[in-house]
UniProtKB/TrEMBL annotation:
Compartments, as annotated in UniProt: Cell membrane; Membrane; Plastid, Chloroplast thylakoid membrane
Oligomer status and interactors: NDH is composed of at least 16 different subunits, 5 of which are encoded in the nucleus.
Name of the gene: ndhA
Source species: Dracaena draco
InterPro entries noted in UniProt: NADH_UbQ_OxRdtase_su1/FPO (IPR001694), NADH_UbQ_OxRdtase_su1_CS (IPR018086)
Described function: NDH shuttles electrons from NAD(P)H:plastoquinone, via FMN and iron-sulfur (Fe-S) centers, to quinones in the photosynthetic chain and possibly in a chloroplast respiratory chain. The immediate electron acceptor for the enzyme in this species is believed to be plastoquinone. Couples the redox reaction to proton translocation, and thus conserves the redox energy in a proton gradient.
This protein's GO CC annotations: chloroplast thylakoid membrane; plasma membrane
PANTHER family associated with the record: NADH DEHYDROGENASE SUBUNIT 1, NADH-UBIQUINONE OXIDOREDUCTASE CHAIN 1
UniProtKB keywords: Chloroplast, Membrane, NAD, NADP, Plastid, Plastoquinone, Quinone, Thylakoid, Translocase, Transmembrane, Transmembrane helix
EC primary class: translocase
Protein name: NAD(P)H-quinone oxidoreductase subunit 1, chloroplastic
Membrane topology classification: Multi-pass membrane protein
UniProt-listed Pfam families: NADHdh (PF00146)
EC number of this enzyme: 7.1.1.-
Source species taxonomy: Eukaryota, Viridiplantae, Streptophyta, Embryophyta, Tracheophyta
Length: 365
Protein backbone atom coordinates (compact mmCIF):
# COMPACT_ATOMS: atom_id res chain seq x y z
CA UNK A 1 0.00 0.00 0.00
CA UNK A 2 1.45 3.39 -1.08
CA UNK A 3 0.58 6.57 0.91
CA UNK A 4 0.80 9.87 -0.80
CA UNK A 5 2.93 11.82 1.68
CA UNK A 6 2.36 15.07 -0.20
CA UNK A 7 -1.41 14.86 0.36
CA UNK A 8 -0.91 14.08 4.06
CA UNK A 9 1.41 17.06 4.48
CA UNK A 10 -1.11 19.33 2.77
CA UNK A 11 -3.87 18.11 5.13
CA UNK A 12 -1.65 18.68 8.15
CA UNK A 13 -0.74 22.17 6.98
CA UNK A 14 -4.41 23.02 6.32
CA UNK A 15 -5.51 21.77 9.73
CA UNK A 16 -2.68 23.70 11.40
CA UNK A 17 -3.60 26.90 9.55
CA UNK A 18 -7.25 26.44 10.55
CA UNK A 19 -6.19 25.96 14.18
CA UNK A 20 -4.04 29.09 14.04
CA UNK A 21 -6.89 31.11 12.52
CA UNK A 22 -9.24 29.85 15.27
CA UNK A 23 -6.69 30.89 17.89
CA UNK A 24 -6.53 34.37 16.37
CA UNK A 25 -10.33 34.61 16.38
CA UNK A 26 -10.52 33.48 20.02
CA UNK A 27 -7.78 35.97 20.88
CA UNK A 28 -9.74 38.83 19.32
CA UNK A 29 -12.87 37.69 21.14
CA UNK A 30 -10.92 37.62 24.39
CA UNK A 31 -9.83 41.22 23.78
CA UNK A 32 -13.14 42.72 22.71
CA UNK A 33 -15.54 40.91 25.06
CA UNK A 34 -14.19 42.60 28.25
CA UNK A 35 -14.20 45.98 26.49
CA UNK A 36 -17.82 45.66 25.32
CA UNK A 37 -18.84 44.29 28.73
CA UNK A 38 -17.30 47.35 30.41
CA UNK A 39 -19.00 49.70 27.93
CA UNK A 40 -22.36 48.02 28.55
CA UNK A 41 -21.92 48.25 32.30
CA UNK A 42 -20.91 51.92 32.08
CA UNK A 43 -23.96 52.72 29.93
CA UNK A 44 -26.29 51.03 32.40
CA UNK A 45 -24.54 52.85 35.25
CA UNK A 46 -25.13 56.23 33.59
CA UNK A 47 -28.83 55.43 33.08
CA UNK A 48 -29.09 54.55 36.77
CA UNK A 49 -27.39 57.84 37.76
CA UNK A 50 -29.81 59.87 35.61
CA UNK A 51 -32.78 58.10 37.19
CA UNK A 52 -31.38 58.55 40.71
CA UNK A 53 -30.71 62.25 40.16
CA UNK A 54 -34.26 62.84 38.99
CA UNK A 55 -35.77 60.89 41.88
CA UNK A 56 -33.55 62.48 44.54
CA UNK A 57 -34.08 65.95 43.06
CA UNK A 58 -37.84 65.39 43.10
CA UNK A 59 -37.71 64.27 46.73
CA UNK A 60 -35.63 67.31 47.77
CA UNK A 61 -38.08 69.67 46.03
CA UNK A 62 -41.13 67.74 47.29
CA UNK A 63 -42.49 67.02 43.83
CA UNK A 64 -43.27 63.94 41.76
CA UNK A 65 -40.39 62.64 39.68
CA UNK A 66 -40.53 60.51 36.50
CA UNK A 67 -43.20 57.85 36.83
CA UNK A 68 -44.76 57.13 33.44
CA UNK A 69 -41.90 55.75 31.31
CA UNK A 70 -41.58 52.26 32.72
CA UNK A 71 -42.13 51.18 36.34
CA UNK A 72 -41.09 54.00 38.70
CA UNK A 73 -39.92 55.93 35.63
CA UNK A 74 -36.78 53.82 35.15
CA UNK A 75 -37.04 54.06 31.34
CA UNK A 76 -37.24 57.86 31.26
CA UNK A 77 -33.50 58.30 30.58
CA UNK A 78 -33.67 55.71 27.81
CA UNK A 79 -36.65 57.53 26.28
CA UNK A 80 -34.78 60.84 26.38
CA UNK A 81 -31.74 59.28 24.70
CA UNK A 82 -33.92 57.79 21.96
CA UNK A 83 -35.56 61.17 21.37
CA UNK A 84 -32.20 62.91 21.04
CA UNK A 85 -30.96 60.18 18.70
CA UNK A 86 -33.72 60.91 16.18
CA UNK A 87 -33.79 64.66 16.68
CA UNK A 88 -32.55 67.07 13.99
CA UNK A 89 -28.82 67.77 14.17
CA UNK A 90 -28.25 71.29 12.80
CA UNK A 91 -24.78 72.73 12.12
CA UNK A 92 -23.91 76.46 12.34
CA UNK A 93 -23.66 77.87 8.83
CA UNK A 94 -20.54 79.98 9.52
CA UNK A 95 -18.95 77.73 12.13
CA UNK A 96 -16.02 75.35 11.80
CA UNK A 97 -17.83 72.09 11.04
CA UNK A 98 -14.85 69.84 11.79
CA UNK A 99 -14.21 71.32 15.22
CA UNK A 100 -17.95 71.46 15.88
CA UNK A 101 -18.29 67.71 15.18
CA UNK A 102 -15.08 66.56 16.86
CA UNK A 103 -15.64 68.36 20.18
CA UNK A 104 -18.36 66.08 21.65
CA UNK A 105 -16.48 62.94 20.55
CA UNK A 106 -13.26 64.05 22.25
CA UNK A 107 -15.16 64.87 25.45
CA UNK A 108 -16.74 61.39 25.59
CA UNK A 109 -13.72 59.34 24.50
CA UNK A 110 -11.37 61.01 26.99
CA UNK A 111 -13.70 60.09 29.86
CA UNK A 112 -14.31 56.55 28.62
CA UNK A 113 -10.57 55.82 28.52
CA UNK A 114 -10.38 56.63 32.24
CA UNK A 115 -12.35 53.46 33.03
CA UNK A 116 -9.43 51.32 31.82
CA UNK A 117 -7.58 51.67 35.14
CA UNK A 118 -10.52 51.35 37.57
CA UNK A 119 -10.53 48.05 39.51
CA UNK A 120 -14.12 46.92 40.07
CA UNK A 121 -13.05 43.86 42.07
CA UNK A 122 -10.17 41.56 42.92
CA UNK A 123 -8.21 41.09 39.65
CA UNK A 124 -11.13 42.67 37.79
CA UNK A 125 -9.54 45.52 35.87
CA UNK A 126 -9.11 46.08 32.16
CA UNK A 127 -5.53 47.44 32.35
CA UNK A 128 -3.52 47.21 35.56
CA UNK A 129 -0.86 49.80 34.77
CA UNK A 130 1.95 50.94 37.04
CA UNK A 131 0.97 54.57 36.36
CA UNK A 132 -2.78 54.04 36.55
CA UNK A 133 -3.82 57.16 38.50
CA UNK A 134 -1.61 59.49 36.49
CA UNK A 135 -2.95 57.99 33.27
CA UNK A 136 -6.44 58.97 34.44
CA UNK A 137 -5.32 62.53 35.20
CA UNK A 138 -3.54 62.92 31.85
CA UNK A 139 -6.48 61.52 29.87
CA UNK A 140 -9.10 63.56 31.74
CA UNK A 141 -7.16 66.74 30.97
CA UNK A 142 -7.97 66.20 27.27
CA UNK A 143 -11.72 66.74 27.79
CA UNK A 144 -11.52 70.56 28.12
CA UNK A 145 -9.84 70.65 24.70
CA UNK A 146 -12.99 69.13 23.22
CA UNK A 147 -15.14 71.70 25.02
CA UNK A 148 -12.93 74.54 23.77
CA UNK A 149 -13.11 73.17 20.22
CA UNK A 150 -16.89 73.00 20.48
CA UNK A 151 -17.16 76.58 21.70
CA UNK A 152 -14.82 77.92 19.02
CA UNK A 153 -16.37 75.86 16.23
CA UNK A 154 -19.88 77.08 17.05
CA UNK A 155 -19.12 80.66 15.89
CA UNK A 156 -21.07 81.94 18.88
CA UNK A 157 -19.64 84.33 21.46
CA UNK A 158 -21.61 82.69 24.28
CA UNK A 159 -20.38 79.25 23.27
CA UNK A 160 -16.79 80.45 22.96
CA UNK A 161 -16.94 82.12 26.37
CA UNK A 162 -18.32 78.89 27.84
CA UNK A 163 -15.46 76.90 26.30
CA UNK A 164 -12.91 79.34 27.74
CA UNK A 165 -14.53 79.05 31.15
CA UNK A 166 -14.44 75.25 30.97
CA UNK A 167 -10.72 75.26 30.11
CA UNK A 168 -9.86 77.77 32.86
CA UNK A 169 -11.90 75.86 35.43
CA UNK A 170 -10.36 72.51 34.53
CA UNK A 171 -6.80 73.83 34.71
CA UNK A 172 -7.48 75.56 38.03
CA UNK A 173 -8.77 72.42 39.75
CA UNK A 174 -6.64 69.82 37.99
CA UNK A 175 -3.54 70.85 39.96
CA UNK A 176 -4.99 70.42 43.50
CA UNK A 177 -6.56 67.13 42.42
CA UNK A 178 -3.22 65.88 41.10
CA UNK A 179 -1.44 66.84 44.32
CA UNK A 180 -4.02 64.88 46.34
CA UNK A 181 -3.51 61.84 44.11
CA UNK A 182 0.25 62.17 44.55
CA UNK A 183 -0.19 62.13 48.34
CA UNK A 184 -2.17 58.88 48.08
CA UNK A 185 0.54 57.41 45.86
CA UNK A 186 3.20 58.26 48.45
CA UNK A 187 1.20 56.55 51.18
CA UNK A 188 0.71 53.44 49.02
CA UNK A 189 4.21 53.47 47.46
CA UNK A 190 2.61 52.89 44.06
CA UNK A 191 0.73 54.62 41.25
CA UNK A 192 -1.27 51.48 40.42
CA UNK A 193 -4.93 51.64 41.40
CA UNK A 194 -4.88 47.96 42.39
CA UNK A 195 -1.88 48.50 44.69
CA UNK A 196 -3.59 51.50 46.29
CA UNK A 197 -6.66 49.41 47.13
CA UNK A 198 -4.59 46.52 48.46
CA UNK A 199 -2.52 48.91 50.60
CA UNK A 200 -5.74 50.04 52.30
CA UNK A 201 -6.98 46.48 52.79
CA UNK A 202 -4.06 45.57 55.06
CA UNK A 203 -5.63 47.43 57.99
CA UNK A 204 -9.30 46.86 57.24
CA UNK A 205 -11.84 49.62 57.78
CA UNK A 206 -9.41 51.86 59.67
CA UNK A 207 -6.85 51.57 56.88
CA UNK A 208 -8.93 53.59 54.42
CA UNK A 209 -7.15 56.66 53.14
CA UNK A 210 -10.21 58.65 54.21
CA UNK A 211 -8.90 58.53 57.79
CA UNK A 212 -5.25 58.93 56.83
CA UNK A 213 -5.85 61.80 54.37
CA UNK A 214 -8.95 63.74 55.54
CA UNK A 215 -7.69 67.07 54.18
CA UNK A 216 -6.82 65.51 50.84
CA UNK A 217 -10.25 63.87 50.71
CA UNK A 218 -12.06 67.21 51.12
CA UNK A 219 -9.84 68.90 48.52
CA UNK A 220 -10.30 65.96 46.12
CA UNK A 221 -14.07 66.10 46.62
CA UNK A 222 -14.29 69.82 45.85
CA UNK A 223 -11.94 69.49 42.87
CA UNK A 224 -13.97 66.57 41.51
CA UNK A 225 -17.18 68.62 41.65
CA UNK A 226 -15.42 71.41 39.76
CA UNK A 227 -14.00 68.97 37.18
CA UNK A 228 -17.49 67.53 36.60
CA UNK A 229 -18.94 71.06 36.34
CA UNK A 230 -21.51 70.34 39.01
CA UNK A 231 -23.13 72.98 41.16
CA UNK A 232 -21.85 75.23 42.65
CA UNK A 233 -19.18 75.03 39.91
CA UNK A 234 -21.28 74.85 36.72
CA UNK A 235 -20.04 78.21 35.43
CA UNK A 236 -19.19 76.98 31.88
CA UNK A 237 -22.91 76.47 31.21
CA UNK A 238 -24.58 79.01 33.48
CA UNK A 239 -28.01 79.61 31.94
CA UNK A 240 -28.52 83.20 33.08
CA UNK A 241 -25.09 84.29 31.74
CA UNK A 242 -24.23 82.08 28.74
CA UNK A 243 -27.59 80.65 27.56
CA UNK A 244 -26.10 77.13 27.71
CA UNK A 245 -22.36 77.72 27.34
CA UNK A 246 -20.46 75.58 24.85
CA UNK A 247 -23.64 73.54 24.25
CA UNK A 248 -25.71 76.48 22.96
CA UNK A 249 -25.57 75.50 19.26
CA UNK A 250 -25.82 71.75 19.81
CA UNK A 251 -28.83 69.50 19.38
CA UNK A 252 -29.62 65.86 18.70
CA UNK A 253 -26.94 63.22 19.07
CA UNK A 254 -24.10 65.74 19.59
CA UNK A 255 -25.91 67.27 22.56
CA UNK A 256 -26.56 63.75 23.85
CA UNK A 257 -22.79 63.09 23.77
CA UNK A 258 -22.16 66.14 25.98
CA UNK A 259 -24.93 64.99 28.31
CA UNK A 260 -23.40 61.51 28.41
CA UNK A 261 -19.88 62.86 29.01
CA UNK A 262 -21.00 64.86 32.06
CA UNK A 263 -22.52 61.81 33.74
CA UNK A 264 -19.64 59.56 32.70
CA UNK A 265 -17.26 62.03 34.33
CA UNK A 266 -19.39 62.11 37.47
CA UNK A 267 -19.38 58.31 37.70
CA UNK A 268 -15.64 57.99 37.09
CA UNK A 269 -14.94 60.60 39.78
CA UNK A 270 -17.08 58.67 42.27
CA UNK A 271 -15.31 55.43 41.39
CA UNK A 272 -11.88 57.02 41.86
CA UNK A 273 -12.93 58.41 45.24
CA UNK A 274 -13.98 54.86 46.13
CA UNK A 275 -10.65 53.45 44.96
CA UNK A 276 -8.38 56.13 46.42
CA UNK A 277 -10.10 56.89 49.72
CA UNK A 278 -12.78 54.30 50.53
CA UNK A 279 -10.92 51.01 50.15
CA UNK A 280 -12.20 50.00 46.71
CA UNK A 281 -13.71 46.54 46.63
CA UNK A 282 -12.68 45.87 50.26
CA UNK A 283 -15.18 46.58 52.98
CA UNK A 284 -14.40 45.46 56.50
CA UNK A 285 -16.54 46.38 59.47
CA UNK A 286 -14.24 46.64 62.50
CA UNK A 287 -13.40 43.11 63.70
CA UNK A 288 -15.61 41.62 60.94
CA UNK A 289 -14.27 40.87 57.46
CA UNK A 290 -16.85 40.56 54.70
CA UNK A 291 -15.04 37.71 52.86
CA UNK A 292 -14.68 35.70 56.08
CA UNK A 293 -18.32 36.43 56.91
CA UNK A 294 -19.38 34.67 53.69
CA UNK A 295 -16.92 31.84 54.20
CA UNK A 296 -14.39 32.73 51.50
CA UNK A 297 -10.69 33.29 52.06
CA UNK A 298 -9.98 35.61 49.14
CA UNK A 299 -12.01 37.88 46.91
CA UNK A 300 -11.53 35.62 43.90
CA UNK A 301 -13.90 33.20 42.20
CA UNK A 302 -17.36 34.04 40.90
CA UNK A 303 -18.90 34.72 44.30
CA UNK A 304 -15.99 36.80 45.57
CA UNK A 305 -15.84 38.81 42.33
CA UNK A 306 -19.59 39.51 42.54
CA UNK A 307 -19.23 40.75 46.12
CA UNK A 308 -16.30 42.96 45.11
CA UNK A 309 -18.26 44.55 42.24
CA UNK A 310 -21.27 45.10 44.50
CA UNK A 311 -19.18 46.75 47.23
CA UNK A 312 -17.37 49.03 44.75
CA UNK A 313 -20.59 50.17 43.06
CA UNK A 314 -22.41 50.58 46.39
CA UNK A 315 -19.71 52.94 47.68
CA UNK A 316 -19.67 54.91 44.42
CA UNK A 317 -23.46 55.32 44.26
CA UNK A 318 -23.71 56.26 47.95
CA UNK A 319 -21.14 58.97 47.32
CA UNK A 320 -23.13 60.22 44.30
CA UNK A 321 -25.77 61.49 46.71
CA UNK A 322 -23.42 64.39 47.65
CA UNK A 323 -23.21 66.07 44.19
CA UNK A 324 -26.91 65.42 43.53
CA UNK A 325 -27.95 67.00 46.85
CA UNK A 326 -25.48 69.88 46.39
CA UNK A 327 -27.19 70.76 43.11
CA UNK A 328 -30.33 71.83 45.00
CA UNK A 329 -28.60 73.10 48.14
CA UNK A 330 -25.71 75.41 47.24
CA UNK A 331 -25.88 78.61 45.18
CA UNK A 332 -23.75 79.08 42.08
CA UNK A 333 -20.41 80.83 42.55
CA UNK A 334 -19.13 83.72 40.48
CA UNK A 335 -16.25 83.08 38.10
CA UNK A 336 -13.78 85.12 40.15
CA UNK A 337 -14.81 83.25 43.30
CA UNK A 338 -14.31 79.94 41.54
CA UNK A 339 -10.79 80.82 40.40
CA UNK A 340 -9.85 82.29 43.78
CA UNK A 341 -11.02 79.11 45.51
CA UNK A 342 -8.89 76.96 43.22
CA UNK A 343 -5.68 78.99 43.09
CA UNK A 344 -5.61 80.81 46.45
CA UNK A 345 -7.21 78.22 48.74
CA UNK A 346 -7.21 74.65 47.45
CA UNK A 347 -3.76 74.78 45.80
CA UNK A 348 -1.88 75.87 48.99
CA UNK A 349 -3.83 73.38 51.11
CA UNK A 350 -3.17 70.46 48.75
CA UNK A 351 0.50 71.43 48.49
CA UNK A 352 0.79 71.59 52.29
CA UNK A 353 -0.93 68.21 52.56
CA UNK A 354 1.60 66.75 50.12
CA UNK A 355 4.50 68.17 52.13
CA UNK A 356 3.07 66.74 55.38
CA UNK A 357 2.58 63.34 53.75
CA UNK A 358 6.14 63.37 52.40
CA UNK A 359 7.53 64.35 55.79
CA UNK A 360 5.61 61.59 57.57
CA UNK A 361 6.80 59.02 55.04
CA UNK A 362 10.43 60.13 55.49
CA UNK A 363 10.14 59.96 59.29
CA UNK A 364 8.67 56.45 59.14
CA UNK A 365 11.60 55.14 57.08
Amino acid sequence: MIIDTTEVEVQVINSFSRWESLKEVYGLIGIFVPIFTLLLGITIGVLVIVWLEREISAAIQQRIGPEYAGPLGILQALADGTKLLFKEDPVPSRGDIRLFSMGPSIAVISVLLSYLVIPFGYRLILADLSIGVFLWISISSIAPIGLLMSGYGSNNKYSFLGGLRAAAQSISYEIPLTLCVLSISLLSNSLSTVDIVEAQSKYGFWGWNLWRQPIGFVVFLISSLAECERLPFDLPEAEEELVAGYQTEYSGIKYALFYLASYLNLLVSSLFITVLYLGGWNFSIPYISIPELFGINQMDGVFGTTIGIFITLAKAYLFLFIPIAARWTLPRMRMDQLLNLGWKFLLPISLGNLLLTTSSQLVSL
